Amino acid sequence: MGETAQMVSIAMVASLLLGTLIGLILYVTETPLLVQNKFVNRIAGVVVNVIRSVPFVILLVVLIPLTKIITGTTIGPIAASVPLSFSAIAFHARLVEGAFTDVDTGVLESAIASGAPLHLVLSDVVFVESLPGLIRAITVTFVSLVGYSAMAGIVGGGGIGDLAIQFGYYRYETGVMAVTVILLVVIVQIAQVIGDKVAAHFMR
Amino acid sequence: MPRPVIELKDINVNFSHAGGTLHAVSHVDLTIMENEIFGIVGPSGAGKSTLVRVINLLQQPTSGQVIIDGQDITSLRGSALSQVRRRIGMIFQHFNLIGGATIAKNVAFNLKAAGWKSSDIPARVSELLELVGLQDKSDVYPSQLSGGQKQRVAIARALANNPSILLCDEATSALDPETAEEIVTILQDINRKMHLTIVFITHQMDIARKLFGRIAVMEKGSVVEVNDTYTLFTEPQHESAKKLVARVMDIGVPPELQRHPDEILLKISYVGERAYDPVISTVIKTYDVDLSIIHGKIEYIDNKPFGILLVTLHGSKEARDAALAYLQAHTHHVEEVSEG
After folding, report:
1. What is the least distance, in Å, from the CA of A199 to any CA of chain B?
2. What are the pLDDT digits (tens) for A102-141?
3. Which of B306, B298, B232, B310 is CA-nearest to residue B273?
């Protein structure tokens, strides 16, 4: 359990920081209303698309050299958090970009027409209006991460997935596997409910 | 001596898409004078919304110049452009308030945009909300307000930095007639009291009739006619203009109307003070004709009266012709309505 928590929290932090940043870059460089920059937009888009189109297990393997460099090992939860983070960052970036893009264009136009500087438009309009969407994005990324961490478990990452595989699959102890599945479902449900409640609070 | 506040010189806005190029705005030249309420009308797709967005460069023109208060702003960017934008307020058809912020925060946004000190903001916000009669709703969210109230908040917000120009993009098109009237009254008020130049886009000709001093008619990206409101409504030149004013100005001829021989159907229009001259009774007394009024109305355009009468003129050809000549000499326009 602790191993899962480790992997997931590292990847969550990475996706929240870098994923949100990349999502913001994708958004700001897209529309002529903001700082349209087709070059930057295309590069960021390609990077995100490539990471997302590679099946996670393959990403795990492909990133082994990089994992070795960053963490010094290829086994265990810390090592697993490298490919997990990559995946989560790209995943979350697209969700965040989506939440920003959903902000009403008219509201954005009105903000820009008032002569506000870009940072104020982003903080007081874009961020405020996309808040429910951003919270939902965090919930979706978290739930996906829990699932992906289980996959990491298969290839030696540890965590619940590892538990399920080692005891449940290799040793046919269905009881253990059942417990881990139930545990995972509970965690995900709680996360979803909390996420939905918080998002609803901000939908005025 | 009134001076030009907005000058648009040879504005073109082209959008390239899969099928080719769309000329949303084509060679538009317009000059809007200080303090006037200038309307831009036309059917959907005429390019009005695109054109009004060129004024504050929300839409970059493909070519042409935008001159505000004598300053060419066309190539301004960044903070220079932001500064100019603070002198131009804008309100929209769908209000465009920040849904996740209270009314007070919405108005405060424009003040923050101009760099106001946070300590000075609340007082100014109260002042502005009082101006539009919403001071008791400052901690309410936009979703809790009616359309008219939302538009009033939008006006308060747009006026936050004392702009000299207010752009209105179909500002009344999403409101019911009574609420639209309220907004029109508020705009006329602030135009008078704050010497605000207003540019208003609409397809609602009834609003145009009441609010605008001068009107530009747009069709397929070009400005086809510009005139003062009264002249545009009473003597439209271009086909588009005629179609637009017809709805407001027309008197429908009932199709069931029986036509007798020796009888012609006339549409007579009166302008200004002549609207009250007893021309009809003089005709009946002087010539050997019967004149029956089928339908009549007086419209007020820019606060000036304009009357239209639908009459049948019955009598011998000579009498009718003489009466007709008299009518033509003493009214604005006489038109014989033919069959069908």
Report:
1. 12
2. 999 999 999 999 999 999 999 999 999 999 999 999 999 9
3. B306
Same domain, B39 and B167: yes
Count CB atoms within 10 A of the CB of residue A108.
Answer: 20
Do residue A107 and residue B97 have CB atoms under 8 angstroms apart? Answer: yes
Asked if residue B128 is part of any domain, the answer here is yes
Residue type (1 letter), B81: L
Query: Nearest chain B Cα to A130, which residue?
Result: B100
Are B229 and B290 found together in one domain?
A: no
Structural domain total, chain B = 2
| Minimal Cβ distance to B96: which of A32, A107, A115 | A107
Closest by CA to A148, choosing from A46, A37, A12, A48, is A12
pLDDT per position as a tens digit, B217-273: 999 999 999 999 989 988 889 999 988 888 777 776 777 776 777 888 888 888 766
Q: Can you give the residue range of the structural domain that contains B31?
A: 4-247
As for the ipTM of the complex, it is 0.83
Is A110–B154 a contact, with Cβ atoms under 8 angstroms apart?
yes
For chain A, list the domains and their CATH numbers.
2-201 (1.10.3720.10)
How near does any CA of chain B get to the CA of A180, in Å?
40
Judged by CB atoms closer than 8 Å, whether chains meet at A114 and B79 is answered as no
Residue showing tokens 């999502």 = A23
